Amino acid sequence: QSRVVRLSTGEVYAVYLAPSASGTDPSQAQWVLMRRGAGANDPWSEVGGRRAGREPMHLLRMPDDTLMVISWPTLPTAWTVSTRNGSPVISAPVLIPGAWETMGSGSTPYSGAGVAPDGTVCLFASRGEAGNVSGAIYTSDSAWDYACRAPSGVWGRHTTLAIGLRYAY
User: Fold this and answer.
1) pLDDT(9) > 80
2) What is the pTM of this model?
3) Checking CA distances to 160, which of 54, 98, 140, 149 falls within 20 to 30 Å?
4) From start to end of 28-141, where are the E strands?
5) Of the candidates 77, 130, 78, 121, which has an alpha carbon nearest to the alpha carbon of residue 101?
6) CA end-to-end span of the chain
7) Where in the chain does DSSP place strands (E)?
8) β-bridge mates for residue 126, sequence order
9) How many helices (H) and strands (E) does the chain have?
10) Do 55 and 61 touch, CB atoms closer than 8 A?
11) Nearest-5° angle of CA 153, CA 16, CA 111?
């Protein structure tokens, strides 16, 4: 899972998962974005953070050096980070459209994200219960959910692909 990126300027950004303010509810964990300048001895500084949910987030570098952080507070959410002039600015959250599985404290999304050289972003996650096999055990009625965002910024159709035995992929 992507957590560290280097911009064309040499700056380095990293994101990590931190406990919630209360420290007791894992579904309230936060992601924290850090920045280091291009120099080998430049110090790290905190850019900011938002609610991640229980599972780790993804950090993607777009072709124009904009960053995207994707996490799953309950539904998949994306933040863009403008990195112009060394003063990063985190956008408001944007829900990624689709009929994604809501992630509660007991769900395990096993998500992944990637970006193509043209700026196409794809997000995928395993779904524990796809609802395809009535009465099936949790692992035998699973699926992959995925959606991609065009370089224009428009998310495409959310798709669910049944995979059967979750532990056997």
Assistant:
1) yes
2) 0.87
3) 54
4) 30-36, 44-51, 58-61, 67-71, 77-82, 89-90, 94-95, 111-115, 121-127
5) 130
6) 17
7) 4-6, 12-18, 30-36, 44-51, 58-61, 67-71, 77-82, 89-90, 94-95, 111-115, 121-127, 142-149, 159-164
8) 144
9) 0, 13
10) no
11) 55
Q: Would the pLDDT of 138 be above 60?
A: no
Contacts of 114 (CB under 8 A, 6+ apart): 2, 60, 121, 122
Which residue has 């370089």 as its token pair?
151
Instruction: Check if the beta carbon of residue 32 is closer than 8 Å to that of residue 19.
Output: no
Separation CA 72–CA 53 (nearest Å): 5
Beta carbons of 116 and 60 less than 8 angstroms apart: no
Task: Output helix, strand, coil percentages for the chain, rounded to the nearest 5.
Answer: 5, 40, 50
Over residues 96-128, the pLDDT tens digits come to 999 887 765 555 667 899 999 999 999 998 876
Handedness of CA 94, 51, 141, 134 (dihedral sign): negative
